[in-house]
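Why do we bother with a discrete structure alphabet at all? Because it lets us treat a fold like text: something you can write down, compare, and reason about line by line. To make this less abstract, here is a complete entry for DUF455 family protein. Read it the way you would read a sentence in a foreign language you are learning: slowly, and without expecting to understand everything at once.
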Amino acid sequence: MKISQYAKHLLLAPNLEDKLMPPSRRWDEETDFTPIRIESPGRSSNLLFSDKKVKIPRLEHLNLISNRGLSLHHFANHELMAIELFAWALLAFPSAPKSVRNGFLKTIEEEQTHLKLYLDRMREFGVNFGDLPLNYIFWKQLGQFGTLESFAAVMSVSFEGANLDYAQVYAQVFSYFGDNVTSEIMLTIFEDEIKHVKRGLRAFEHSVPENKNHWEHYLSLIQFPFTPRRAKGYLYLPETRALAGMNPEFIRSLGSYEDEYTGRVNLESVKKFGLGETILRKNRLDSHLPKV
């Protein structure tokens, strides 16, 4: 099988099981390097996109099992879209450097692992994928992906960068409520997201013009109403960006960025959960939390 054939399979197959097929360890040589831009993924009836908005439960309400399942459903939807869109990028940018394409394949494999972790844990909470409407926030950005660099700016630097914050926040809150199993899942995902952001930075950083810094280059690659606000969670944890190898000036600029989309974190929640005081790593969690 060629990489392009595999990418088409992930994009066009309607069933969840097909989208979870892992990458091969060996690929047939590509002969056609014509870019292919597929406008929307194949989805079975229970996986179709919806414009209906479903709010993710507040952090304070994750003491309830049902709300944990709803939160994981939200995250699982993001993982499925990421699988599809990195497959999309393999087709849209067939002439990308081999290291970048191999990185996208590895990211797809890890996103598939994340999705499986979420699906299994959701079922234990009584929630099945597709029980709730599925938004298409990642796919809405398709018009921005004119170049490999713009794709990396939106998907890797922004969406996956923001997930560094979200994975940390939810790992710590699940731990606070004694759910160490789900907390460990979030930290597994956090560790992988560090790698994902690093891979995206390869494409982004290699294209920075001599007359621009990283932040200016990033701003030139995204289009309003998409703003840098999408590149961080509601609680910004700059240490996570340093772990991913982001430029220090970029980290500072992102941290200070605000616009009309900037929300306000419930300060009582931050205080209650101790969010932002420390960054959990998988090995640290394993060393002091009991197994459940």
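What the structure line is telling us, in plain words: The chain has a mean pLDDT of 92. The two ends are 41 Å apart (CA to CA).
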